[in-house]
Design brief:
Elements lengths: L2 H11 L2 H5 L2 E5 L5 E8 L3 E7 L2 E8 L4 E9 L3 E2 L3 H8 L11 E12 L2 E11 L2 E17 L4 E13 L15 E12 L1
Antiparallel strand pairs: 1-4, 1-11, 2-3, 2-11, 3-6, 4-5, 5-7, 7-8, 8-9, 9-10, 10-11
């Protein structure tokens, strides 16, 4: 029998507990893109994302424990408009030269029946560290049938106030609330 088919059959029969108990995962930068939404002067909702993310995730759903360490390259911001991206990388907003990374670190994960549903941790943005709660509204672990590797994926959301992180240029006309959505996939080490 073909090894790929055999691996797929074996992997698809394993329960989440068997495949993810106390394991370490590396964030897949090809499938992880933190995005944001902000009110643009009352006219529209401006959206963007970050193209470069790295990190580690450790999960033990049986014990309801784990940790997350994520780093986002500030200069990788992408809005589809080069002029806006340069302004956002500058001193008025992200100051990417001085603060090259946005990080999130957590060792307080919340589970419901072995399913990750949230994380409380510290978000460091623009040199300011604040507690942030992330809500996980989709979570799945299993065998990636293309890569044939155990993978976990999630959709994560939060809302922060940019002024809490000393990024308050044009506030409040340019929205202070920033909605964050992160699609993330991580491959078992």
């Amino acid at each position: 029998m073909n090894q790929r088919i055999l691996a797929l059959l074996i992997g698809s029969t394993l329960s989440f507990s068997a495949t993810a108990a106390d394991n370490s995962y590396t964030v897949d930068p090809r499938h992880t893109f933190p995005s944001f939404e902000i009110n643009h002067l009352g006219f529209s909702i401006q959206r963007g994302l970050f193209n470069k993310t790295t990190g580690k995730v450790r999960l033990n759903p049986d014990a309801e424990t784990g940790s997350i360490q994520i780093a986002i390259e500030t200069a990788s911001i992408n809005t589809g408009l080069a002029e806006l991206e340069e302004h956002l990388r500058g001193k008025d907003f992200l100051d990417a030269a001085r603060y090259p990374e946005i990080t999130f670190v957590s060792d307080k994960l919340a589970f419901s029946k072995e399913r990750l549903v949230g994380a409380d941790g510290t978000l460091t943005l623009h040199g300011v560290a604040k507690p942030v709660h992330l809500t996980v509204d989709h979570f799945y672990c299993g065998l990636n049938i293309i890569a044939l590797k155990n993978t976990c994926g999630a959709n994560v959301t939060a809302t922060i106030k940019r002024s809490d992180f000393d990024v308050d240029k044009y506030a409040p006309k340019l929205g202070d609330d920033v909605k964050i959505a992160i699609q993330i996939e991580a491959i078992k080490d």
